[in-house]
Amino acid sequence: MSILSNLLKDVFTKEKHSGVSADDLSPSSVDPLIEQVNLKLTSGDIEGAEKIYKDAIEQFPGDTRLRALRTEVEFLRCLAIVDKRFPGPNYLEWLRWFHAMLKPGNYLEIGVESGQSLQFTRAPTRAVGIDPAIQIVHPQENWVKLFKQTSDDFFATRDPQQVFGSKIINLAFIDGLHTFDQALKDFINVERFSDARSVVLFHDIFPVVPATAQRNRTTRFWVGDTWKVMMILQEHRPDLKIFTIPTRPSGLGVVTGLNPASTILRNDLELICRQAMALELSDYPDGIDESLHVTKNDFDAVAKLLEIE
To answer: Is 0.85 topped by the overall pTM?
Structure first.
């Protein structure tokens, strides 16, 4: 939480140089409340910080520094909920595990960003990363090809079999846009070059804070509506083996048993997306755990489901 403390100090310093009035900066007004919120956040008392913040914003609704605190308070509240809901290994630990256990001949990652998850590939795996805004900062020690384009453009203009030097994609991680329709299109394209033993992983499919599960982003911690892709696959592709690992920060969907000859999703894509667009988390008043086929956040449990010895 010390990082947050420094961040908050930076925010306040910037405000002092951005036209905030002298009244706003008066120690006798809002400063003591800001300090209390800061102390609560630093100690990890998110609920206490949120209560003080709400009281403060009622007293000083026009204070710019208090408004700047709102994003941080809400962000840390989300993280606190996530940490409580998803104990155990996080999704990066799971990606490392999948590479170690499956030892895939090749690996496709959609949504590379900084290369944080792509770095877990090891020889002899041949890795391909796709992202229109790639900014690699994590060292890549393995065979990797990067394509700075959208996944739609990649599949429209390139032959994955030639790129990989293989007819089959063994392991894929879909972590691009936070929208279900794009995730679904990515799955359809991956399945065309897969077989029954291929494994596809979906990120951001298990929201535990409803406000973060909206299609349009309104929160700093954001899952989007990618969770809908799991509901779609459950309904339209009962032949697939589907389950969800409840791992921080937003779950990891696992799909195997793929069939490149299937055309159900491709043929009915427009209708499927139109129907799913109307889905809301509120349609699942008892939670979406059952619909996601949630398993344990446990390596042995998942190994058993995947029949890995």
So the answer is: no
